[in-house]
Amino acid sequence: MLPRLLNHSLFAFFLLIIGYYYFIVPIFGYTGFQWNFSYIKLLESILIIILFEKVLPRKCDRPSDFILNIHFLLPILPMLVLYTVSNRSRIFMYAVLFCFYIIINLRNTSFFNIRLRKINQNFLMNALILICLIYVLILFNYRGFKLNFNFFDIYMYRAMYSDSLPRFFNYLSPLVSKVFLPAAVFLCITYRHKLAILILIISSTLIFGYTQHKGTFFYPLFVIVLYNIIKSEKAIEQLKASYLFLLAICMLFFYFENTISQFIASVFFRRALLVPAELNFQYFEYFSIHKNVFWANNFFTFGLIDYPYDLPTANIMGDYINKNASNYANTGWIGSGFMHFHFIGLFIYSVVISIVMSVLDSLSKYTGIRLVIALTFIPILTMFISSDLPTTLITHGLIISIIIVMCISPLKIHKYEE
Predict the structure, then answer these.
(1) Of 241, 232, 201, whose CA–CA distance to 219 is shortest?
(2) How many CA within 13 A on the CB side of residue 121?
(3) Which burial class, exposed, middle or buried, applies to 224 when counting CB atoms under 10 A from its CB (0-12, 13-18, 19+)?
(4) Which of 39, 144, 234, 354 has an alpha carbon 20 to 30 Å from 88's alpha carbon atom?
(5) Among 362, 360, 366, which Cα is nearest to 380's?
(6) How far apart are CA 222 and CA 402, in angstroms?
(7) How many angstroms separate the Cα of 274 from the Cα of each of 74, 209, 348?
(8) What are the residues facing 379 on neighbouring strands?
């Protein structure tokens, strides 16, 4: 009984509220995290969580089963926390929940069944390792030994380092860090190439030092943790247990009240969970009263729609939230969907995401559930918390990840299912 209670999302919900009250508001209240508790919305949130606990998959029979549970934890559950403790918009919260429910049900529709010519897994693994190493050498060619590994200084160095690199790095870097590197790490774990895993971790550290994108440093570690979660028959239970464990560890680190421990706790508790949820509400508040973008800057509108602003939307939101237009405030598909076309944008994105999940479920029949999850996890997570849907598909490599899954040979597909 106790393990089931601890794995219930309600337990995580209350831990988030406690952490928000005792740590986030006192430490980060100046950034906009305020306490405006609503008992009515608390009751609503509890009932919603109980409902979705009944609806969400409890077993990982398809990739979408695992992905949907991830999505509920990031950022749906933190949004319910802010909905309760900050008394946020009811209509927006319920619109998000409705679209999430659409995804849960529409993913069961079979849209595509695509199979491409297969590539040997060992060959693919070596090719991906080679790409990562070449990328590090290219960075070394441009930057030499000018690296920064201090997490406290990354925002100071990021713009400086980015300006010193050619423009094509803006497109190459996400593909390497979010697709090629995590895929290579997963395949190396599968083939138990420990030396190659170490080389890839060192490569990710060097890429972080050159680009100042801290996600690059963590992605291989995510894949290693993910591998150990999804290889279990109780993958979803393990996922929720890991989520609760991280929440508890973060609250403990906050309690120590020193700069390093609070920074570590802040990376997950505040930056990964609460900031994306907060940005979704901020995007709703801003674009409820300002002009929508209607995908004006996306290639598929062919320049037929005029962009209504002088700055990119991420900078506009940085100015709106932090009074600093040089800050980038990117959000996931929820906030960006509303930014483009209000609630219709949310609905369109929920349909597209359902199609993506249907495709992943179809591919898993040939290549294995765990492989599909591992190779698409980072781009999908990016779509949930920090990137517009078209940007995720193209720039952040979700389509490339899907193509890799389509092409991978079934030679050892059941090795990671054991």
Answers:
(1) 201
(2) 20
(3) middle
(4) 354
(5) 360
(6) 19
(7) 9, 26, 25
(8) none
For the residues 250-279, what does the mean pLDDT come to? 90
Which DSSP state fits 7?
A: T
**Segment holding 374, helix H or strand E:** helix 369-385
pTM (2 d.p.): 0.91
Q: Which helix (H) or strand (E) holds 158?
A: helix 154-163
Dihedral sign computed on CA atoms, order 273, 274, 275, 279? positive
Q: And the tokens for 267?
A: 């990376």
Q: What percent of the chain has pLDDT over 90?
A: 62
Structure confidence at residue 4 as a pLDDT band (50, 70, 90): low
Amino acid at the residue 68? L
Which amino acid, 28?
F
Backbone angles phi, psi at 107, to 5 degrees: -60, -20
Res 218 pLDDT > 50:
yes
Phi and psi torsions of 266, nearest 5°: -65, -35
Token reading at 73 = 């934890």
